[in-house]
Design a protein that fits this description.
single chain, alpha/beta, Rossmann fold, GMP Synthetase, Chain A, domain 3, 8-stranded mixed β-sheet, 7-stranded mixed β-sheet, 19 helices, about 30% helix, globular, binds 5'-O-[(S)-butoxy(hydroxy)phosphoryl]adenosine, nucleotide-binding, ligase, AMP binding
């Protein structure tokens, strides 16, 4: 069995890494025996304006969940990511931008980044943006995305980034919930040779009458494509920054002032605005970046994530820049214009640390040698994986074909809510087992509990919880603290529930088995089944819908949707296409169902609850063991569904 394979740390790697296994053991021990002392010391990884005297003040008590770190300290995020490096690294490269088109690239030194961020921060101020205001970013992957983020932090505005692949409807929902006052976007984005009409989507979103909170739309010219213009509301980025001052004093922020909101999906209702605050988040992103990737001066680091996801926040922008690293921001996709693009970018920029997702790895693996053709990838030293469990076959291929068996793979488990990586190998410290995220990072105390919430010890499997807080933890659901407590702290009282299941082996290694709630992970993108279902039933011809995940070779999980039409409607091929298109419009392309199953009826209990367990089994063809169906209101529904499945395309 492949999971028995172990890759010990190579001696040369341990010798040159920041930390070896003995070092890890010692530091981990300190971090959990005395978290207060540990974080008092390691909070110093940042420059503080007013030093903190208090370190940890956190409670997971039901009804009183309250999380504060470094609460009396003050600092500024952009000053930590830029200004403090200027004296020693002003002329070193902060951001390398690699365009969708391989012929387009540019780089920004720390000095240049400082100038751009200050100018844009001043431009925002001139538009009336103040400390505490929420600024919505709907941007392509260009340096200005990072510049806008840092400019917000410079003046104490709270950014809320919406992934450019989300639809106008999804964007409007996030603007309304966060009460954003400004949207920053571009004329168009460019991905895989195709233009994405970002400004047009913003215009469309703002036709929603509840988006009146938006006063201005700032538009970056990226492609030069045609855009509609609303005088008095729309402003060109280049025009408002042109004459802006190149100096902007960083705002002094309290450690617990909000830094950003980022929406993520849960098992119920609308996406939640995950709120991260300033001090703890940045301490944690900075420290995890350093140790997990074994960052050392001279490294060139490339994270392929989009800024619209938490990985793009913590490990594309904040973690790397706070460490004074060189970070690559890539506009395109890993297999355009050729299958070898990812490998080519590694060679072109001498990337030493590569951080990508299993879905990309599997897509390249399917193409075999084409994915590395004509490249050496000699510069690589450490490789990372994030977003979903990596299957051992993909791990082995990544290790062998991309890393030439030289580079340790850090399989990093974490979540939007956790702010930074919680379970992960460290390159010089951890023997690797393909498919396992291995051990907790410093200060992280995972546990497994059974369904009654009892902690279970030793080699076992259960629900993954955290028994105590870490600095990067989310503080609340924006505008709904009750929902925060309900979602994360009520299932297992006094613990943070991750929503994931995991197994722990005899070496104490964790193997994430996936979500145990109604959350899907499609190509590393997180989606609630409830969200897709409500998009489906919003269609005038649909009466009812139920969505389940099914294994998918490249995407990890695919979306399987059971759809019941209103009486009198016929399931035609045209309607099939229309329904898929409808979901794209409501949420975005990433939510498009892979399979539509026209169902005459759904299996329900007598109290009307849909039995998803049965739907999951039918979707995967596992109909030999449907379990107890006697509680169904109408057991014949099951046979009908199995019959229909044969006709599903
Ligand atoms: C969910 C969080 C963290 C940034 C990207 C996703 C799954 C994430 C791993 C991993 C197994 C993983 C979990 C988690 N997940 N990384 N290395 N191994 N599962 O962030 O959108 O908040 O999703 O992604 O199920 O709960 P997210």
């Amino acid at each position: 069995m492949s999971e028995l394979k172990i890759y010990p740390v190579k001696e040369n790697i341990a010798a040159n890494a920041l930390i070896d296994d003995a070092g890890y053991q010692k530091m981990y021990e300190q971090s959990v025996v005395n978290p207060e002392g540990f974080w008092r010391e390691h909070g110093q990884i940042l420059d503080w304006i007013k030093p903190y005297t208090k370190v940890k003040n956190t409670s997971y008590d039901p009804g009183h969940v309250d999380i504060k770190w470094f609460e009396d300290g003050t600092l500024n995020v952009s000053a930590n990511c830029i200004d403090r490096h200027l004296a020693t690294k002003g002329d070193e490269v902060a951001i390398i931008w690699e365009g969708d088109n391989p012929e387009e690239d540019k780089s920004l030194t720390y000095n240049e980044l400082h100038k751009e961020v200050c100018q844009f921060a001043n431009a925002l101020k001139a538009q009336g943006v103040k400390k505490g205001d929420v600024v919505c970013l709907y941007m392509p992957m260009v340096p200005e995305a990072a510049i806008a983020m840092l400019a917000c932090t410079r003046i104490g505005a709270v950014h809320s980034i919406v992934f450019g692949g989300f639809s106008p409807e999804a964007l409007a929902g996030r603007i309304i919930d966060s009460n954003s006052t400004i949207v920053i976007t571009s004329d168009e984005g460019l991905r895989g040779g195709r233009a994405v009409p970002l400004k047009q989507n913003v215009d469309q979103a703002l036709t929603n009458p509840d988006t009146k909170c938006i006063e201005k739309v700032i538009v970056l010219k990226r492609t030069g494509g045609d855009v509609a213009w609303t005088e008095g509301r729309d402003l060109w980025w280049h025009e408002i920054t042109e004459n802006a001052s190149e100096q902007c004093e960083p705002e002094e922020m309290n450690a617990e002032d909000p830094l950003f909101i980022l929406y993520t999906s849960g098992s119920t209702g609308q996406p939640k605005g995950v709120l991260h605050t300033t001090g703890g988040y940045l301490v944690y992103a900075t420290m995890t970046f350093k140790y997990v990737f074994d960052y050392q001066p001279g490294d060139v680091y490339w994270c392929t994530a989009d800024v619209g996801w938490i990985t793009g926040h913590s490990y594309l922008v904040y973690g790397p820049l706070a460490n004074g690293a060189t970070t690559i921001l890539f506009e395109g996709v890993p297999n355009y214009p050729s299958t070898a693009r990812m490998s080519e970018v590694v060679d072109k920029h001498n990337v030493s640390i590569l951080y990508t997702a299993p879905t990309a790895i599997r897509a390249l693996m399917a193409k075999g040698d084409e994915a590395t053709a004509g490249t050496s990838r000699n510069s690589l030293r450490v490789m990372g994986s994030v977003g979903e469990p990596i299957n051992p076959e993909a791990w082995e291929w990544y290790y062998r074909a991309i890393g030439d068996e030289k580079c340790p793979i850090v399989d990093t488990w974490w979540q939007t809510e956790t702010g930074g990586i919680l379970i992960t190998p460290l390159p010089g410290a951890t023997a690797l087992k393909p498919g396992s995220a291995t051990r907790p990072f410093f200060g992280v105390q995972p546990a497994l509990v059974d369904n009654e919430g009892q902690i279970i010890e030793g080699a076992t499997e259960g629900n993954l919880v955290m028994v105590d807080s870490w600095p990067g933890q989310m503080r609340t659901v924006y505008g709904d603290h009750e929902r925060f407590e309900q979602t994360y702290f009520s299932t297992f009282k006094g613990m943070y529930f991750t929503g994931d299941g995991a197994r722990r082996d005899e070496d104490g290694y964790y193997w994430i088995t996936g979500r145990v709630d109604d959350v899907l992970n499609v190509s590393g993108h997180r989606m609630g089944t409830a969200e897709i279902e409500s998009a489906l039933v919003a269609h005038e011809k649909i009466a009812e819908a139920a969505v389940v995940g099914v294994p998918h070779e490249i995407k990890g999980q695919g979306i399987y949707a059971y759809v019941t039409l209103n009486a009198g409607e016929e399931p035609t091929p045209e309607l099939h296409a229309e329904v898929k298109q409808w979901v794209r419009k409501e949420i975005g392309p990433i939510a498009t169902p892979d399979v539509l199953h026209w169902a005459e009826a759904l299996p329900k209990t007598r109290s009307g609850k849909i039995m998803r367990r049965i739907l999951r089994k039918i979707a995967t063809g596992d109909t030999g063991s449907l379990g107890d169906t006697s509680t169904l209101a109408d057991p014949s529904v099951v046979d009908k569904l199995i019959e229909e499945k044969a006709k599903v395309v």
